[in-house]
Amino acid sequence: MTMTFTAFMQDVFMFIGGVTMLTREIVRDLFGKKWNWNLILEQMFQIGQRSLPLVAICAICTGMVMTLQFGMGLGRFGGTLYVPRIVTVSIMRELGPVFTALMIAARVGAGIASEVGSMAVTQQIDAIRAMGTSPIQKIVLPRVIAAFITIPLLVAIANVIGFFGGLIIGVTELRLDSQFYMLKSLSNLIMSDYMSGFGKTFFFALFIAIPSCYFGMNVKEGTKGVGIATTKAVVVSSMMVLLGDFFLTKFFIVLQGLF
Predict the structure, then answer these.
(1) Residue 209 resides in a domain
(2) Residues 6+ apart with CB under 8 A from 129
(3) Measured distance CA(197)–CA(159) in Å, rounded
């Protein structure tokens, strides 16, 4: 038990140190060299367009389920009219950003870790270094920038789809008028409700892209190590999204109180 805990803590500190050093190198290359937009656009396609169906299905199901659950619960107390406001705020503040980030962590995090890990196993990263080119510039930076741009856009789309998913159930199951649903949702929605959720997405993008690149670049056990790195990337990215969500929520609440 003691050895297991010691090994676990050692892995945690190695991960923190490794990610910190990788982040430092990313920041150095981010402002020190010219960006390769061809690689960035390619990664934006891989992250964005190919993740859109999964994000859309997750968003519309979330909106529908939340509306149905709140409608059944509040309907017992005559509170059905409050469902549009509650569901919309829940999606904008928490459910849209977090669920989308978790879906992307599962798909994109695994993809980045396996792709970069395969490059490490086949010594492509060493070949890039041998040619005098930074692997951070060619491999890591395009994926981080692409995630930083694409994930907030996916969350914005997911929020809209989730809203219409709630609208569908509100009209068909709760027998609410569609214009009433939209009026109640949008009239009570303030900018801070949207921005507190949307602002988290930029941090979620970093929580997904950087650890995934780190685990991929540090594969050491051949093809078996690629599978282990992929699993670690998904688990760690998901945990960082969930833990980061709490602290970011607290931060935005404090920030909202100041202004």
Answers:
(1) yes
(2) 135
(3) 10
Distances (CA, A) of 187 to 94, 179, 198, 199: 19, 12, 19, 21
- The C-alpha atoms of residue 215 and residue 104 are separated, in whole angstroms, by 17
Residue 189 structural domain: 55-253
d(CA 83, CA 75): 9
Integer angstrom CA distances of residue 164 from 13, 156, 170, 223: 44, 13, 9, 43
Q: Output 175-179 pairs: Cβ under 8 A, ≥24 positions apart.
A: 176/80, 176/81, 176/83, 176/84
CA 2 to chain centre: 34
List pLDDT tens digits, range 128-151.
Answer: 888 877 888 888 999 999 999 999
Which conformational region is residue 132 in: left (phi greater than 0), alpha (psi within -120 to 50 degrees), or beta? Answer: left
Return d(Cα 37, Cα 146) in angstroms, integer.
10
Domain assignment of residue 120, yes or no: yes
Q: Answer yes or no: is 1 within a domain.
A: no
Number of domains in the chain: 1
pLDDT tens column, 102-127? 999 999 999 999 999 988 888 888 88
Backbone phi, psi, residue 35, to 5°: -75, 145
What are the start-end ranges of the H helices in the chain? Answer: 2-32, 37-44, 52-75, 83-90, 96-104, 110-121, 124-130, 135, 141-172, 178-187, 191-217, 222-258
Mean pLDDT by 10-residue block, N- to C-terminus, for the chain (259 residues)? 70 87 88 82 89 93 93 85 90 92 92 90 84 84 94 94 94 90 84 86 95 90 84 94 93 81
